[in-house]
Amino acid sequence: xxxxxxxxxxxxxxxxxxxxxxxxxxxxxxxxxxxxxxxxxxxxxxxxxxxxxxxxxxxxxxxxxxxxxxxxxxxxxxxxxxxxxxxxxxxxxxxxxxxxxxxxxxxxxxxxxxxxxxxxxxxxxxxxxxxxxxxxxxxxxxxxxxxxxxxxxxxxxxxxxxxxxxxxxxxxxxxxxxxxxxxxxxxxxxxxxxxxxxxxxxxxxxxxxxxxxxxxxxxxxxxxxxxxxxxxxxxxxxxxxxxxxxxxxxxxxxxxxxxxxxxxxxxxxxxxxxxxxxxxxxxxxxxxxxxxxxxxxxxxxxxxxxxxxxxxxxxxxxxxxxxxxxxxxxxxxxxxxxxxxxxxxxxxxxxxxxxxxxxxxxxxxxxxxxxxxxxxxxxxxxxxxxxxxxxxxxxxxxxxxxxxxxxxxxxxxxxxxx
Length: 418
Fold this sequence. Notes:
Elements: E1 21-24, H1 32-45, E2 48-52, E3 68-72, H2 79-84, E4 88-90, H3 98-104, E5 111-116, H4 134-140, E6 143-148, E7 156-157, E8 168-171, H5 186-198, E9 204-206, H6 211-218, E10 227-228, E11 232-233, H7 236-242, E12 258-260, E13 262-263, H8 267-273, E14 279-281, H9 284-287, H10 290-293, E15 299-303, E16 307-309, E17 314-315, E18 318-319, E19 322-323, H11 330-339, E20 344-348, E21 361-362, E22 379-382, E23 385-388, H12 394-402, H13 410-414
Parallel strand pairs: 1-2, 1-5, 2-3, 3-4, 5-6, 6-8, 7-14, 9-10, 9-15, 11-13, 12-14, 15-20, 16-21, 20-22
Antiparallel strand pairs: 16-17, 18-19, 22-23
Helix pairs in contact: 3-4, 5-6
């Protein structure tokens, strides 16, 4: 039985020590009530540190870093404003490496704030929207404080939550954060049609979040027996699962079951995840781990980029002189897919930078960082078509990539010599 107290009676200074590193859930699993309590009591506690992930709320503000030092694996979601203010330190790492960094102590964990569901059918609590690295953090922590939220689904996981590790809990009744996916426009729909044309029946999908992934998933209604093994999960998969498109019947790992690590969820996905035997939330060591991904021989990894050069190198971390981090799971999945017997690793992006009208396809990446190396990219897709780079020389790759660039930039790109 988890010990619970009223939130108003919880004095964090009685439990958290100056210098402690606190880890908490991300995306829809941000334990907002506990974070707000930490912010309110931070001066009483003293200087502390926090490791955060993708944030969908504005709970943390730059002024809160007077006592809370922040680190993340990427300036993701609303955390980008913290990075822009110079108060977020970024840790460049593969997403799959975060559990090992915690287990080894290289990323120390002293305290965990975790959001959990009410007891489910078997009487246990669930991590709900987010499994990822939370179990690793809980295992290493000296102190675990949970918030029990009735709006969190009792999702099925790879194994039960170790409730003996939870030292204290509060009740928190609020709607978890969600993300409204932008409506796909003409460019996104063209990209989605190109991507859908190379996905074969029976493929296992990994995808990201945004208008392009949403459009791609919506374009797959005519496919059959697709699988799902992805880090991030969003509402769009529900129609594909309920429509019999995603069946996981040809997936070698977790056959018949869709797998995710983080659900960015609205009410529909919350209801869908609740006690659903066909869907499981797994740790990132499974969703992104090389040992698991190596067993999926039909993996299609769909990711995006800020820039692609004519070698096929990917920048997904830096805009101009602003480093945003966020390697995330791109490299984990892209490498696995390009080495899979029937896999495809692809980058799907608009050809244009947007308002500036510049080209995302360039002769040289804008910063010093290469997120994904050229050998892990099978295809680059824009609204102008598909550059299939497999089996091509450097010169042939460049020619293929130029063919899908903005037409007004192609002559300039052709003057570049590999």
